[in-house]
Structures are given as C-alpha cells and as structure tokens.
Amino acid sequence: MSVFPQVRLRRLRRSETVRSMVRETTLSPQDFIYPLFVCHGSGVRTEVGSMPEVYQLSLDQLAGEARATRALGIPAVLLFGLPAEKDPLGHEAYAPDGIVQQAIRTIKDATPELVVVGDVCLCEYTSHGHCGVVEDGQVRNDPTLELIAATAIAQAEAGADIVAPSDMMDGRVGAIRRGLDERGQPEVAIMAYSAKFASGFYGPFREAADSTPAFGDRRAYQMDPANAREAMREIAQDVAEGADLIMVKPALAYLDLISRAREQFDHPLVAYNVSGEYSMVKAAARNGWLDERRVTMEILTGIKRAGADLIISYHAREVSRWLDA
Ligand code: PBG
Q: Is the peptide bond before 96 cis (omega within 30 degrees of 0)?
C-alpha cells in the first residue's frame, strides 16, 4: 500500500518561514577564512585578471583590509606572499622580514583578534615555481622539509596563529610540529592541506600568486584526482603527525571526500573553494549566464552540507555582506 497522500513532503515548503524552520544547513560569516595576496611596494591594489574583485595588496593596504574582513564577522585570513625576488631555494619564504612575515605583523597590529593563517609553501618563492627543492630536475622530499619547517617557524615568530602547509611533501606536518615546538611555539596550530589534488582548478591562483611551475607539473607530489582511499590515508598520516585541522582541496569536484573525511575523522575539517571554482562563477555571471548570488550561496551551502566546518573562499566577503543584508 502506498503511503501517499498521508506523506506530503511539500507541506514544509509552503513559505519561506516554514522552509527556514526546517533548513538543515545555514551559512554564517563565521564559517569562512578569507585569502589575501600580499606584495611589496606601497599603494598597490592590483586586481587579478582571472579573479575579479581579488587583489594583490601591498602592506599599507592590509590594516584596512583586515579590519573590513573582521567587521563582516569573518574570523580568519589566509596569507599568500609575492616575494621581491625568487631563487631556487625560495629564501623569502623563511626570511624574518619576508613579505608574509611582515604582513602577519601588520595585521596582528591592526586587528589582534583576527586569526592569521600563513600558507606554508615554497612555490611562490622559488625561481622554478615548484613547492620543493629541485635537484636533477626532480622535486626532492626530505631536503624540502627543513625549509618548510623554517617557513612555519618564521611565520609563527611573526605572530601567525595557524600555519598551513600546502606543499604535499611527505612528513611535513611532523617536521613543522617538531620545528615549532623546539623554537618555543607549541601553541601555534597546524592546518594541513591533507588531501590536496593536482588540479586544473588552481589555474587563476597561479596568476594571483605568480607560482606557475617553470617546467613539468605538480603530479609527482599533489594527489591524483581519481583517488579517494588514498585521500583518507593522507589525512590519517597528517593526523598522526600532529595536524590540528585537516583539509580537502579543491572542494567542488571532491564533495564525496569532504563527506567521507567528516565521517572518518573528528578533527575540524576545512574545505578550500579554490580559485578556479570562484572564477567560473564570476565569468558566467559576467556573461549573464548564471545568477551569481544564488549560485554562490548554493555552492557554499553544498560544501558545508557535505561536512566542512570551515571554508576557505574568495567569496567570503561578498557572502558575509549578503548574509548581513
Ligand atoms: C601553493 C598553493 C596553491 C593553492 C594554494 N596554495 C597552488 C598550487 O598548489 O598550485 C591554490 C589555491 C587556489 O587555487 O585558490 N602550493
């Protein structure tokens, strides 16, 4: 016997008020981490061609940016740096006065309560654009660990609350944890880009951060997009090495992994709504092909519904404005 018409699911969809009462997932500014690209110079505010409304900003622009972000209710920013000079070992990444270290100090001075996360990677700083030390045309794992740890220490000493290794070398979380603890920084947390895939969706970011590899690609260290079980092993490994927060990146093509990670791990779970995901929406909206606001909210709600506790997103500020309206 059919249960229809006793069960009518449409009863709870009759008005916006009723719908809002039974809504299972809601977004809040508190869910977001907002990425910033910092460069040398002064008065610089260069819009990234492939990422409308995203800017490369010089240090003098940061205090205002940080205050505006906090005022919208967003708890944290994630910093990427464009160095003055690139070299094979990416020295500016771990220099005490490197661009990100200066940015951390500037933001912490302006808005101490805003959580500052430093992206820990060499690719923006190396002349070859890879995330590790290159020897004989290969990205070498173990010699990279020391530089990654030095970068995390430099950021911690500048005042970062959280460091976020995004290089995908094996053993980096452990190397960073040991390095931080030895240097008297046991309180600084590690947000590990645990399951980071070799993705075409990073295209616009590489323009924003000027970090395109000069040869080859990142498939020998970032994950194969086809692998789900391996992603869980990557997360388990980072957890064992001491990660405080874990991440799946990109988000949209990997929602299954967000939900799987949510089931398998109790750590706070971060999803990175990456540059290409952002640029696709902006491009379609500018062509009049999609309703920007509606699609953006739908995407971010989907990422949260899949199980993310926090979302790194270039949409963070506009969404927080919409939520406030
Ligand atoms: C650096 C890094 C990348 C991103 C975050 N950290 C680029 C890459 O791995 O090539 C991508 C972020 C985005 O696309 O928004 N390793």
A: no
